[in-house]
Amino acid sequence: MVTRITELSEHIGESVTLQGWLYARTDKGKLVFMQVRDGTGIAQCVIFKRDVDEATFETALRLPQESSLTVTGIVRADQRAPGVPGGYELSVQSLQVIQKAEEYPIGPKEHGVEFLMDNRHLWIRSSRQWAILHVRATVMRAIRAWLDRNGYIEVSTPILTPAAAEGTTNLFEVGYFDDRAYLAQTGQLYNEADIFAFSRVYCFGPTFRAEKSKTRRHLTEFWMVEPEVAFCTLEQLLEVEEQLVSYIVQTALKENASELKLLGRDPAKLANMAPPFPRITYDDAVAKLKELQAASSDAEQKQLLDITWGMDFGAPHESALTQLYDKPVFVTGFPSAVKAFYMEPYPGRPEVCKSADLLAPEGYGEIIGGSERISDPDLLLKRIHDQNLPEAAYKWYIELRQYGSVPHSGFGMGVERTVAWICGIEHVREASPFPRLLNRLYP
RNA sequence: UCCUCGAUAGCUCAAUGGCAGAGCAACCGGCUGUUAACCGGUAGGUUACUGGUUCGAGUCCAGUUCGAGGAGCCA
After folding, report:
1. Which positions on strand B lie below 7 Å from a protein C-beta?
2. What's the CATH class of domain A5-99?
3. String of DSSP letters for A8-57
4. Could you report the per-residue pLDDT of A54-70, keeping only the tens digit for each?
5. What architecture (CATH level 2) is domain A120-278+325-431?
6. Domain ranges in chain A?
7. pLDDT, tens only, A251-276
């Protein structure tokens, strides 16, 4: 009978057996402290020389980090015991080494990014990475739970696609027999087909962008959930978004309290995530940014915040805007020219479209991009022509508007950016188990 | 693609143009409450690569490679 570390508190005074790996070890004379990981947590196992035979004590004293083992001992509650969740430790009675590990490269001291990324296959064992990936799993589970509970059906969209939805420069090209195919950048166009069969749908999977971006917010492969809703205006879509995001954050706060604590994330900064989120129009946001720019005394910041109406926001603009709110903020009504061809223009004001980005607080920036889609076939065709897109490739997409077209809206949410925000980490690469970056395809 | 910074022991980093160093990890020893323990000892080097300046280069110069941060683009 094997006990898991998360269940230790239910076995105080009992003899239990753990299976795991040696996370860290220190000794003090006739005493050895072993931090043992079992995948569910970390527990301190204490070996007193007088409690075990000579061979066991010698083994423990020399056991290398990350050796696999089975350990049996009495569970004790002890305030001094470190670990995850901590507070409980094992007085070891017996120890079996399954494999004595070779010298482990990742030690208890600090390491550089390149080294850690080269050792990502081992790095994920570290408590910090373990905590982040736990939160990631919670976020993904919460996304599905909320959508499933609210009448959405998950319909997978293809990864291998014939053409781009939004330009062709950022596509990964792959061979497709005698032809070429591209890795999907979005499932949205297929989602739009799916809503006419299922009304509310979402796709959830990896997305690929061959962008030569070298920033803390970019991966070339990332996970995105894309809900799409029939009979839905932009205003209604924003309500869906704020409810979903709030549910995700609240679920993580509830289920990953110890992980967030391990990450040093202050739960107070996430606690008030509840609808409604503030909304600001692009017009007002530009005016606000100009004020901020005028008020800035830093010359470099002044330069970065420079903006004129019609420009898309850069990272410094998003960052400055989010500092004004303690909740995520919607920016609506972007200029049509900087957004995708399929976004519905505002009636009487075609230079702006029914689009909305959701910017996460504390400078984390865009985690959602969404819009109401053009439902009129003639307008859609015109937009395709205006942008010199190949009409033939979009034949099926235009047909969706010819057989019972309805107002509809949808959005895409980036999982790694959302996880990075919730965890309060610097870089999205830590929010992915094996991140793919501009110069990183190993391991 | 552009801008800035960097590459020295397994890891993190020092070293005024003048003998290649420390901490951690490893190995040996000491210590019955460690939290990245502490104390003593041992071992560990093609200073990213190529060329140049110099009596002498880890250090200065040129080029190359790799990496980090940022911009643009985006979720």
Report:
1. 1-2, 10-13, 23-28, 30-37, 66-75
2. mainly beta
3. GGGGBTSEEEEEEEEEEEEEETTEEEEEEE-SS-EEEEEEEGGGS-HHHH
4. 899 999 999 999 999 99
5. 2-Layer Sandwich (3.30)
6. 5-99, 120-278+325-431
7. 999 999 989 998 989 999 999 999 99
